[in-house]
């Protein structure tokens, strides 16, 4: 089955490719469709933004499209950066800038518990979308640790492994992350969602 991953984020794309390597998907991403304009993320929730990305691209390509809208939620910062995780420090902010801003905002008096959310939407023009969500809980460190991963991984400490997500290999992160938990749910529900359609 042809599957377009509706993302420009190379970190996400690597994780999808590794997690789905044993499944019969012919995966492409938005980099293979340079004519498609970026979909504005005007929603107010992860699900709304994930739906916008997947359903818009599915209509335009008439294909199966999978999107991920994800982010880091810090309850003591009123759930920031949340759906604004990619642009926390500004419209074209780098991961570096976003991590610096998080360290500035999360002053020493505040609780450092946080969680990642990944909402996945699988869309096709003639079907009701399949929506799943995964989460993982951790804590925000006061300085970066590790070089792997992307985004907030160097600051996201995961107590069960006593490491940050940036200290995990791609394979290790894919056994515990929010995105891998969401992918697991998606795969569980996929046969039923596809029905008599071919994989
Ligand atoms: P696409 O919309 O093209 O997929 P994006 O990076 O703009 O790419 P989002 O709007 O979903 O995607 O923003 C997700 C941001 O949340 C991402 O840029 C990171 O800053 C953060 N994030 C999500 N998953 C993460 C992970 O596994 N590790 C670290 N940070 C993550
Ligand atoms: Na978003």
From TrEMBL:
Gene3D superfamilies: 3.90.950.10. Mg(2+) binds at residue 69. One of its GO terms (biological process) is purine nucleoside triphosphate catabolic process. Its cofactor is Mg(2+). Keywords: Hydrolase, Magnesium, Metal-binding, Nucleotide metabolism, Nucleotide-binding. Its EC number is 3.6.1.66. One of its GO terms (cellular component) is cytosol. InterPro entries: dITP/XTP_pyrophosphatase (IPR020922), ITPase-like_fam (IPR029001), RdgB/HAM1 (IPR002637). It catalyses: ITP + H2O = IMP + diphosphate + H(+); dITP + H2O = dIMP + diphosphate + H(+); XTP + H2O = XMP + diphosphate + H(+). Homodimer. Pyrophosphatase that catalyzes the hydrolysis of nucleoside triphosphates to their monophosphate derivatives, with a high preference for the non-canonical purine nucleotides XTP (xanthosine triphosphate), dITP (deoxyinosine triphosphate) and ITP. Seems to function as a house-cleaning enzyme that removes non-canonical purine nucleotides from the nucleotide pool, thus preventing their incorporation into DNA/RNA and avoiding chromosomal lesions. This is dITP/XTP pyrophosphatase.
